[in-house]
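Sequence in, structure out. Go.
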Amino acid sequence: MYLIFAIFKSFSNVTLKKGTVEVEFMGYLQKFHYKLTGPEAGRPWVFLHGLMGYLHNWASVIRALDSTERCLVYDQRGHGQSFKPASGFSSQDYAQDLKEIIDELGFQKITLVGHSMGGRNALHFAWAYPDRVEKLIIEDIGPESDPHNYLYYEKMLKSIPTPFATRTQAKEFFAEGFSQVFPVKEDPQVLASFLIANLKENDSGLLDWQFSSIGMIDSVRQGRSQDSWSMVQSLKMPTLWIRGENSKELKPETFQKILESNKMIQGVTVPRAGHWVHSENREDFVAALKKFVGL
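Output:
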């Protein structure tokens, strides 16, 4: 009987009835919308999207890898179709989610890729669980603190008059009014496309955010409350730090400081790309990943 309980220990409900075991399969992964691609025997990769993102942001990247690689993408907590708690949006919370997920999947070591907020969460995971990361790739995010950074996203979301009655109405707003009411840091067309993709029909038939707005603001507030330089300096696994040539998020001087802080880190600047490197120049981004891991 002990062996049976050991087998099912990862499930939430196990009950005994007259010598039998009834199991409700309630694994941690059920809280998340996720996708696994590639051969089961392939090297395991995990991709973490950025703030207000979701798993499909990585679609073209994993298509370029999944002939040989085992790729996991998922909507992180508060995002997309995954669970949306009222609180718990620190990098530590996100990292703990990843730990529970790969434990459940049986991934011993992963190649971990994170973009923007996902990069910050990936950094925290690699620092907290270094023995679980084979290689680390951070895309266009720095480790510096910025306690007021959340105000940018708070203002952004408040400037967008959701919910929209139709997708046409939403597209018209982003084409004509968005740049007038909100000064964006990056390419406004790229940001507009990203935000429109996050609009989903709600129970009332209106288009509203698929993410938790409160969770997004809290993610930035907690994630940027203090710097992570000590984590960067302590990394023990081969790490690739990627910057978009035209990025306003990761400044050149910060990027250079990152590369000088730890001999395990190498850097690549991807041309013709801003903050959304893997979207704006997928070809060079994927080439950098493949070269780094030896594909």
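Check: The two ends are 45 Å apart (CA to CA). The longest strand covers residues 133-139.
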